[in-house]
Amino acid sequence: MLPSADQNEILRRRTFAIISHPDAGKTTLTEKLLLYGGAIHVAGAVKSNKIRKTATSDWMEIEKQRGISVATSVMGFDYSGYHINILDTPGHQDFAEDTFRTLTAVDSAIVVIDSAKGVETQTRRLMEVCRMRKTPVMVFMNKMDREGKDPFDLMDEVEKELQIHVTPVTWANGQGLKFESVFALSNRPAELTPKMEEDLEMIDGVYPQFDKEAYLRGELAPVFFGSAYKTVGVQELLDFFVENAPSPRPVMAEEREVEPMEDKFTAFCFKIHANMDPNHRSCIAFFKICSGKFLRNTYYKHVRKAQQMRFAAPTCFMAQKKETVDEAYAGDIVGLPDTGNFKIGDTLTSGEELHFRGLPSFSPEMFKYIENADPMKQKQLEKGISQLMDEGVAQLFVSQLNGRKIIGTVGQLQFEVIQYRLEHEYQAKCRWEPLQMYKACWIEVNDKEGEAELEMFKKRKTQYMAYDKERRDVFMADSAYVLSMAQQDYKHIKFHFTSEF
Ligand code: G4P
């Protein structure tokens, strides 16, 4: 176990992400939290990493904006004795995969909902990931200063659509033009309007008391109302958050569960941010520390490469400044400058042979064959594809029938990014060929009968079978109909849309 001073450092850490549908107010809320932390001094200081709608077809512009986001990848600050790390998530849905991975590095999340729009698609998808990982979440109903949906309807919507129980912690005095303030339900105003009395009676009748254990299990979300823009209801959220949100939680490795307070250092890589400058092919590998304490210039084991490495210039992120750090604790994120040693999912330890569970891959939404367009540059192309996949830019599948390479993404933009980077960083040229594909399904059987059925299935469907990067079998279903037929015909085979089940 670590000495108690170090344990206290870990206990005061709160590492979380704010998730929302674009435009719900994530940037505005982040900024207000930073203002409370004294990390910034004027509103408008946080550059939105949101990709402006007008620029969606111009991905160079997007990359420029993504450059900004290195600085806002992690925003650390102190508040009320706690050390807070906010992990930023890309707003553009074509980079949803990045966001999924970031969620593997947080200990909790705050979901921001636009009270006029209610639960939107991106929120639903991100919440699925939180549910899968049992991440505790709090909900902030934003934009109460605008005419919006009824607060009770909003809470019903969250319960139904995000499949989580809710209980309000604050309540809004009015809504839209009449919105003034919020109050804590544990500390109600003496004077109440009849409407407010009615609301409170309803709340007491319908919603349970806040139960911290249920929240920590990811079953109950406390709900807050407010306006990030007008800075109303934000401090109530922040105070409740630091007190109740979990400090770093134990993390499951293949070998065993790792406790944050162990004195041995362990960490995993959840994100690699490439420098887009072709003259400096350098990256920052982002590691979440799972246990112990990280020290600069100290040797750690890169488990996959069975190699000792030390880092002279690790960075931490205080507010928007990237600073070299001498030490960091479980719960923190360190950025390690890298020139191609790391890939997503890599583990660093003080020496132990430990593998953090691979981050789940989700079935891509779009698929294309990638072909070599310059026969002289085959090697460069192979290398480029392999490194870009390690960085998590997209997923590679290889057809079991003919060995053709298939790239899967969540959006068109990623194809453009890959093509551009292959050309500029690897001097290789690629060509895309269309492929009509519905989903990539990881398949699983649990018994002897299933194994026989799987053999049969693979034989019959050879042309639809591929390997993923770990050489696992993947069934490439070309339509929802084909998939549902397969599910009917092969009852012993389970079809999964994520690689971890
Ligand atoms: P995002 O990061 O989730 O995409 O959202 P962001 O904070 O950028 O907010 C999106 C828009 O919603 C912004 O307006 C922002 O000012 C506004 N907004 C955020 N919170 C509130 C709120 O509580 N009440 C109201 N009325 N508006 C809010 P914009 O016009 O797109 O940008 P700007 O010109 O205001 O910067």
Descriptive overview:
With 501 residues, this protein is an alpha+beta fold. It has 3 domains: 14-248, P-loop containing nucleotide triphosphate hydrolases (Rossmann fold); 252-349, Translation factors (Elongation Factor Tu (Ef-tu), domain 3), CATH 2.40.30; 363-500, Alpha-Beta Plaits. It is built from 13 helices and 29 strands. The chain has an 8-stranded antiparallel sheet. A 7-stranded mixed sheet has the order 2-3-1-4-5-9-6, sandwiched between helices. A 6-stranded antiparallel sheet has the order 16-15-21-12-13-20. A hairpin with a 5-residue loop joins strand 27 and strand 28. Helix 10 (378-391) packs across helix 11 (412-426). The longest helix has 15 residues, at 412-426. It is globular. Residues 51-57 have low confidence and may be disordered.
Task: Give a brief outline of the structure.
The protein is an alpha+beta fold.
Core attributes:
alpha+beta; Rossmann fold; Elongation Factor Tu (Ef-tu), domain 3; 3 domains; 8-stranded antiparallel sheet; 7-stranded mixed sheet; 13 helices; 29 strands; binds guanosine-5',3'-tetraphosphate
Annotation, overall tally of beta strands? 29
Number of contiguous helices: 13
State the shape.
globular
Can you summarize the main beta sheet? Answer: 8 strands, antiparallel
Question: How many separate domains?
Answer: 3
Over the alpha carbons, how many angstroms does the gyration radius reach?
24 Å
The kinds of small molecule bound in this structure are:
guanosine-5',3'-tetraphosphate
